[in-house]
Every structure is written in C-alpha cells, then in structure tokens.
Structure prediction request, 257 residues.
Amino acid sequence: MPELPEVETMVQGLRPLVEGETLLAVEAHDPKLVHVRPALDLPVEVRALARRGKYALFDLGDRLLVIHLRMSGRLAWGASAPEGRVRLALRFPDGAVYLVDPRRLGTAEVVREFKGELGPEPFGDLSWLPTALKGSRMPIKLWLMDQRKIAGIGNIYAAEILFRAGIDPRRPARGLEPAEVRRLENAIPEVLQAALAEAGTTLPDGVYQGPNGERGGFAVELSVYGREGEPCPTCGAPVQRMILGGRGTYFCPCCQR
Ligand SMILES: [Zn+2]
Prediction:
C-alpha cells in the first residue's frame, strides 16, 4: 500500500497542479532525503508527471525526480503542510506537493534515467502472461506481487484478483490451467480498473488519502482482503487468512481452488 490504483489516483490529481509549473524549491525534512535537492538545478519546469508501476515520476527535462511511496507514503497538495510526518516538500508558485510518510520507508531520488526493474504494466495486451507464468514455480500470489514480473500489484489487489479469478493463492504460477490463466488475464485489469474508478482503497487506518485528503472508496468493495471470518460474497463460507511469503493472505477456501 499504496498500490497502482492509489499511485495513479495521486498522479492524476496532482498532474493539473504541477505540469507546466515551475518547481521553485525542494525542502527535505528528513536526513534520509537531503540528497535530493543538491541534484537539481532550481527553478525548473515540471514537463510531465507520470506513473510507472508504483512509482511517481516528475519529468524535469534532463532529470527525473522519482518518488516511491512504499508502505505508508502519500503525496498531498496544499498551501501549507498537512498533518502527519512531512518528509519532503516540493514548492510551486501556487502551493506545494508534500511527501507525508509516517513509516519513513518511501524514497525520493533524482536520476537521469528511470531504472526501476519493473515488469510490464497490468493493463492492455496481457497476451505475454501465459508464457511468463510458465517460467515460474512461485506461488501465484507472490508472482503477482513481484514487481519484476508485473508492475503495480501489491498485497491487497493480489488477493482480490485471485478471488475474482477463483485461484488458490498458493498454486505455483506454472501449474495454472489455460482456463485459469484466461480468468487471471481478465481479473487483473478488472480489479485494478474498478479500484481506480473508486480512487483507490482507504483502509480503516486512513493511511492512504488522495492529494487533497480524499478517501478512496474501494474498501467497501473488497471481497476478501481484511475480511477474515466474514462470509465470502459468492458462497457465504468464512473468508480465511493465512501467511504466504510473510504477508497476510485472504482467500475463500471454497471458491478459490
Ligand atoms: Zn466463496
């Protein structure tokens, strides 16, 4: 968290506020991020703001400012600093983008070229998927969360995608039947688009918010994530939780085989 729908929501919200605008100053309030400002010639125009996987990319011409929000980061817009642990402020004439990040795991760096080792985006033509799955014995849930295999999916949406596709999270990627792979091909973009349409998922902890403090509305549409013991929306059996790859994993033992 945040995953693709949350990062995309933040980027879409910030884009009209920063694209074509002049980045006047960069203030690091966290020693971990003090190297960002000296690497920039300021002021500089933001030519574009884009997302790749779970990264936000500020295109500054010959440099990119790359922000990765990790577990608890968010990008907020305002005239003054929002509540919470502000680690970085990007100042523009009409306001600032604040990196708010209670756990301080997010990163910001200035590079000439983005070199994140990311697999393809999970939208559009997914015809590469069957071949990619064939090459891996990883449990399918961990495969979906591996950013080198496919970009943008984390713990929440991996659980929801596998529920929609009716696949047990522990199944080895290369052991899926062709019909199951086709269900996965459909479920990946369907779940992510549905979450994007709701501006992402704000869990009860309230950590994720949009750039103006908006809550994402997808939490109420989660079928299994965070719902241990609650009835499966399809069959009514209690949703179960297990640990897979060190992460809490929610699934329906009846619907997911
Ligand atoms: Zn079920």
In short: The radius of gyration is 19 Å. Helices lie at 4-18, 129-134, 140-145, 155-165, 178-197. The mean pLDDT is 96.
